[in-house]
Amino acid sequence: QGQLVESGGGLVQAGGSLRLSCAASGIIFSIATMGWYRQAPGKQRELVARITSGGRTNYTDSAKGRFTISRDNAKNTVYLQMSSLRPEDTAVYYCNANRDVGSARLYDYWGQGTQVTVSS
Predict the structure, then answer these.
(1) Rounded to an integer, what distance in angstroms lies between the CA atom of residue 23 and that of residue 100?
(2) N or C: which end of the chain has fewer CB within 10 A?
(3) Which strands form 77-82's sheet, in the order they lie side by side?
(4) Closest Cα to residue 71, out of 59, 61, 56, 60?
(5) CA-to-CA distance for 63 and 20, rounded, in angstroms?
(6) Phi, psi angles (nearest 5°) of residue 19
């Protein structure tokens, strides 16, 4: 059973920066696709950024140029560096780990979430 533990959230002023971390255990981290999602009050959870086992990344449009996802396979950790933060980035940020083989999803794990609040 995989486990994901996020850290690094907090309160920051608009224009500031935060780095989120997600430590994984119970999975072969190096072959997992890792992602960061967020959910604001009253809204659906949305993908923020994702990084494949091969290092390919993709971002939601609002994160492009401001956020960077990276992974350290030696530490079983994925990061989300967020800069130029805006009040609309306020949300609970969740870490996700998944692995697909063909059309079959082998696993899909979620962390407990970490709150990011950006004040104006």
Answers:
(1) 20
(2) N
(3) 3-7, 18-25, 77-82, 67-72
(4) 56
(5) 14
(6) -120, 120
Instruction: Identify the helix (H) or strand (E) that includes residue 19.
Output: strand 18-25
Q: How many residues does the chain have?
A: 120
Q: Would you say 2 and 25 are in contact if contact means Cβ atoms under 8 Å apart?
A: yes
The closest alpha carbon to 97, from 58, 65, 51, belongs to 51
Give the chain's largest Cα–Cα span.
Answer: 45
User: Which residue is listed with tokens 């971390």?
Assistant: 21
The pair phi, psi for residue 14, each rounded to 5°, is: -55, 135
Question: Can you say whether residue 14 is alpha, beta or left, with left for phi > 0 and alpha for psi between -120 and 50 degrees?
Answer: beta
Sign of CA dihedral 113, 4, 52, 44: negative
Phi, psi of 9 (to 5 degrees): -70, 175
pLDDT tens-digit readout, 38-97:
999 999 999 999 999 999 999 999 999 999 999 999 999 999 999 999 999 999 999 999
